[in-house]
Amino acid sequence: MDYMSVVQKEMQLNTEEISELKSFMERLISESQKEGIHFSESRKIAVAAHYISLIRRLKAGEYLPEMDLSAVKSQLDGKIMDIALKSAEPIFSKYNLDVDEREVILIATHIGAAKEEQNKSEINSLEEGKL
Fold this sequence. Notes:
By secondary structure, the chain is an all-alpha fold. The chain has 6 helices and no strands. The protein has one domain (3-130): PTS-regulatory domain, PRD, CATH 1.10.1790.10. The longest helix is centred in the C-terminal third of the chain and has 30 residues, at 101-130. It comes from Tepidanaerobacter syntrophicus.
């Protein structure tokens, strides 16, 4: 089962959410691939679930609690933050809201995790080739 089917089933998505999620994931994956970052199916599920939660919070007028994410942000590559921002901007625009940097940082952590996962996989492949 592909990641969209898993998320759709587990989070009981409506038609509008499916459409918004597809657009977001296409932007996210496209922008990430430009930087050589690829998502595993499990990573796609995680970021898709996060994005659906974001959409639902915005629709309900709810926001993340105040939190200091400066330490997290300082660990993230600027390109990863740019990808997260480009991916998230349209949903904030749709609801006529300013982009919430906390949400962008949390999306960026998913991208960073995908990059780390990919790097570890590449290192393991290299090590296996040497044995």
